[in-house]
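Listing S7. Sequence submitted for prediction.
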Amino acid sequence: MTTMTLQAPDGGSFTGYAAAPDTIPAPGIIVIQEIFGVNQVMRDICDGLARQGYLALCPDIFWRIEPNIELTDQTEKEWERAFELFTAFNVEHGVGDLKAAAEQLRQHEACSGKVGSIGYCLGGKLAFLMASRSGTDCNVSYYGVGLDELMNEVPEVTNPLLMHVASEDKFVPAEAQAAIKAGVAGNANITLHVYDGQDHAFAREGGNHYDKAAAELANQRSAEFFAAHLR
């Protein structure tokens, strides 16, 4: 719908794809990209959230490496480039940029003042970190990677966090999933759902592991979660 220019916390600027609902002001949602950049999948998610009545913004978190990255999951060459970006990505800088974007969205004239986040894959990890390190009102993590290494941050999650986990996630082995389940079990602010038989990115429409029924269930749970905590 439009491009929003955002200010980084340590100087410089980056952009994000923004989609606005018909009625404003509206609650804001930061959409956190996968390893493929702000591509059509992410833009479609923003547009879908706008149709649900949210002001959606997907920041370009790879801008420090290379701005305006846009890949698909359809070719081996694009996968190779995506993993290069994933390896080069600085998580601390990424969280700082997302926190800055969330506060700028919160202050936007079209925003009601409430802001949540939703992230996928790498974005699922960052959504978890937004829950533990930022003031976002609520957060949703889809098949976040590396979360078993972040369980020390669980006590810092004081606002609602919804987690979607794929039981057969090739990037999150069984032992990591067990550590995540045990690690979040004591925090009443965290709700975790496991999708049996599903692989990583089961909600990525058009992807190799897309499962319509599981995706619709997860997305419905996310919609109800946002309605409960951002309205």
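Caption to Listing S7: primary sequence and predicted structure tokens for the chain studied. The mean pLDDT is 97. The longest strand covers residues 111-120.
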